[in-house]
Amino acid sequence: MPAEQMLIYSIAMILNTFILPIIVFTGLVGNTVSCMVFVGKDLRRLSSSVYVLAVLISDTGTLLCLLSVWLEVLGFGINHMQGICQLFVYLTYVCSFLSAWYMVCITVENFITICHPMKVKVMCTMNRASAVVVILAAAGMLMYCVTVITTHVRTNSYNQQLCDQNQDFDFLVSVFTYVDSIVTLLLPVSSIGFMLVAMGFSIANTVRWRKNSPRTDSARRCIKSPQVRVTKMLFALSTTFLIMNAPLHCMRLYYLLRDSTNAQMSHTAALVHLFLLFISYSHCAVKFFLFIGFSRNFRKSLKELGFMCSVCTKDVNSHPAYV
To answer: What is the pLDDT of residues 12-24, one digit of tens each?
Structure first.
């Protein structure tokens, strides 16, 4: 093996052995606690909380799939077993699709709140958000059913079972790769980027307007509404998604378009891709910290949740069970 490939392999092993479990377990704990907070009485009434819960669940699905990668590094290759192989590939595609499009929904919700605040009560409703979440989930589960037949378990020359692409469906996989790249990479990233720019201009115009104009009663009511108060947190979620995922998506699209010329990725590019991949993985685990940093309501609800847990623990300890 050439020295460059050996270096990349060694770095990949270090990342998969030591960094990946940190990302996975931090994300699983953080997402679980975040879900408990967002179903609390203070936050569950907001339509944006429906999308936040949905993206936390889809991110957790992605982390569980990554957990199987770490278990393989430890010698437990459960993802190469018949049936489980297809399941993990299917879940990876579905969860990636849902995470991207639920982030688009969060950005749209914030876009309406910032750029069209008078339409919040009409456009940003719990029923509408719930319907969108269910429709996207159904669309993702149906669209990626194709991965069940394009993936199989084969036996290599060392008599080892490997979860791999079914060569009988090469053309279908090729077409599906382009479709998935457009639906999961290009459209969400470009949509979120466009809306973030529009929101930036709108915020700048609002700041100038507030300096020069008195506030009306309707403007005060909009500013004080719960939906408007979460804009900072939602803006942070959308911006973080773009920063941590756009570089990897752009690199993948670049090499996907160059694939027709059979251009090989250089060793440097492969190393950059590896680091960008782990940055993208980390995005599934950082939302808890974003909520703490940008949402006062989340911090308040988290403290209340901790207080309730401590009260329950004290209650259990003060009333021990006797046999």
So the answer is: 999 999 999 999 9
